[in-house]
Amino acid sequence: MTHYGICYSKEGPARFISHLDMVRTFERAIRRAGLPVAFSQGFNPHPKFSFGCPLPVGIPGREEYMEIELVSELSPAEIEEKLNLALPGGIAVLRSFRMVDNAPAIMALIDSARYKVQIDFQPEIDFGRIASCISHFLSLPGVSVVRKSKDGKEKYCDIRKGIFRLELESLQENSAVLEMVIKTGSTGNIRPDEVVSAFTGHCGLPVAEYGVYISREALYGPGGSSLESVLQKKEE
Q1: CATH number, domain containing residue 194
Q2: Of 156, 167, 12, which is closest to residue 91 (Cα–Cα)?
C-alpha cells in the first residue's frame, strides 16, 4: 500500500459543491481514472481517501489537500493526469506526492488557513481608516461572536486567539482586499466570515450589500509549516 497526498483547487461554479458531494465527485473520478485505490474492510467497503479540511460552500480553495491509498505504486505525474481527465470543470489536481511512511492524517496536521477577502464598501467609506481599524482590532484582548449550537442555543465565543494575522493587501475603488491567517482544523476552527463581521462591525465600516468575497489561499501545519514539507517522502 502506498499513500499519496494530493493538492487540488476548487474554483468557479465548483465552489458551490458541498463536502458530501465532493466525496462523491472524487469517488467517481477515481473510478473513471482507473486508479488502483485501496478499499476499507467490512460489510460496506469504500475507497480509502480523505480530505484535509472541508471548505465552506461558496468559498473557492486555491490549494486544498486530500490523501489517497493505492494498492500499487503510480508516479505522481500519472495520478495528476488520470484524475484531471476524470474530474469535472472547476476542480483540478495541481500536484501529488508520495507521503512518508506512517504519516499522520492530513486532517490532523492542519492548524491554520490563509484567506483573501475582498470587501466592497458603501461610497462614504473613509479608506484612511482601514489600516488604523485593523491595528485597533488586533489590539483588542478579546473578540466575541455569537454561535448557535446544534440544539439551536446561542453562545458567545472569543475568537481573538484564533486570528493569527490580519493585513491590508490593497485598496481599490470602494473596496479593500485583506489577507488573514486564522485557526483551522480538528483542534479548533474560526470561520472567515466571523472575522469579517466582527472586524467591520466593531470598527463601524459600512459594507455594501453582498459585498464580501472570500477565497481560501492555503492550508498550513503547526506553526505555519508547509504540509508538503512535513508529509512528502524524499525521493531516493
Answers
A1: 3.30.2350.10
A2: 12
User: What is the residue whose three cell numbers read 476499507?
Assistant: 40
Please provide residue 189's backbone torsions phi and psi, each rounded to the nearest 5 degrees.
-145, 125
Q: What is the pLDDT of residues 7-43, one digit of tens each?
A: 999 999 999 999 999 999 999 999 999 999 999 988 8
Shared domain check, 103 and 43: yes
Question: Across-strand partners of 60?
Answer: none
Residue 147 gets which letter from DSSP? E
Q: How far is CA 47 from the centre of its chain?
A: 23
- Please give the model's pTM, rounded to 2 decimal places: 0.92
Q: How many whole angstroms separate alpha carbon 79 and alpha carbon 82?
A: 5
Residue from 185, 164, 212, 58 nearest 109 by CA:
185
| Residues 101 and 166 sit within 8 Å (Cβ to Cβ) | no
Provide the residue range defining the domain that includes 161.
112-220
Q: Is 96 part of any domain?
A: yes
Say yes or no: 122 and 215 in one domain: yes
CATH number at residue 11: 3.30.70.580
> What DSSP element (H or E) covers 146?
strand 144-148
Q: What is the DSSP string of 55-86?
A: PPTT--EEEEEEEEEESS---HHHHHHHHHHH
Distance, in Å, from the CA atom of 12 to the CA atom of 188, rounded to the nearest integer, reads: 28
> What residues contact 20, with CB distance under 8 A and at least 6 apart?
none
Our count of domains for the chain comes to 2
Residue 2 is placed in which grid cell? 502506498
Per-residue confidence (pLDDT) for residue 161, from 0 to 100: 95
121 and 184 housed in the same domain: yes
